[in-house]
Amino acid sequence: MYCRPNVMPAVVHPTKCCVNHTFSTTVVPHIHPTHTTNVHHNMIQHKHFFPQTQSNVNEVSNQQFVCPPGAAPGFGGPGFGPGPGPGFGGPGFGGPGFGGPGFGGPGFGPGPGPGFGGPGPGPMWGR
Hints:
Oligomer: single chain
Strand content: under 5%
Order of helices and strands: EE
Number of strands: 2
């Protein structure tokens, strides 16, 4: 024979709690503006110069005199002509190799007369 099983009333246990966590991301933009001003400074320096030039003037004065013979050594008396000691190639400027004795004799000129060695009227030119 077939027996029916005895069924007892159900036993209810306390509820087991399970928690499922889900995540989502939400973006909230926060804007912090910044402004940069570039200030360019330009300094203009005005420099004043005062150049100064200089010049030099050399003034030369001349006086020429016709002197009588014997007034100054070498001019009208013995000088570049024959005299003691050898000169350029012999006695005086006109020794051997220069065409003769001295510059034509004693002094510069041919003797008394016009030239450096002769008499004259006095001052020829002033300044």
